[in-house]
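User: Fold this; tokens only.

Assistant: Input:
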Amino acid sequence: MVGFALVGVPLAAGAYYLAINAALKEDPALAVKGACFSAVFAVPGALTWLFGGRRPGDWAMYAIYVNVWTALGLAFPMVFFVALGEENPWRWLIVGAGLLAMPLILVASFALAARAARMLTLPVSAAMADSSYHWPIPLRGLRRTMLVVGTKVIEVRRQSIPVLDFFDIDHHSGGTKYPLTKVTWVWDATTNGEAPATLPKALKVDVETISGPAVGLRVDGHEWVLPVDRPAEVVALLQRRIERANAAADTSRAPR
């Protein structure tokens, strides 16, 4: 699903552009040109998948970036070179349908990538530590905020959305990151009632108390209590990743 959101959608949009060209110009030679043109928009998606495929927490944003680029790249030539350059009574209807479809493509690609990430990530289990993925674990009750368990680092962050950041609507985006070797203790911090919230200050979220399932971490002298579902599994995942990071660090420091 993620591959389709990052590569298939740009190819499909390029194919639509090719179909419009062929319909309005009736030029078979445009098939080769259109195929090359659409392939160009699949390159960013393929590179994103190659270098960011192990970070499911970012798949949805990757899909937005790739397909915004695709939509902008196709919209301008579609309007200026197709609609304005050809005497065809149906040209505005065809082009208008394509332009109206682009926001739907962006939403669909975002939803597809987000669903793929959820299907891969949830439910959390200790066996996930054996992979090379950077696992995003949602923090319950905190919108778009997650604990990301990597192979070498641990990160607590709030997902940034560029449009909201640009207009300063979502000014609480931020996070903090530490090497896994800095984590000295992990425990099940589930509470029956409400407990004071101890979240990383970099998140800048206005949360005073938390309740229910939670996981506690002591990281480089800081103590956090993070509201998560299935805390026992999250603790097991963290412990296995921390053990591996410490073992790798000990190996690298050993004399040769």
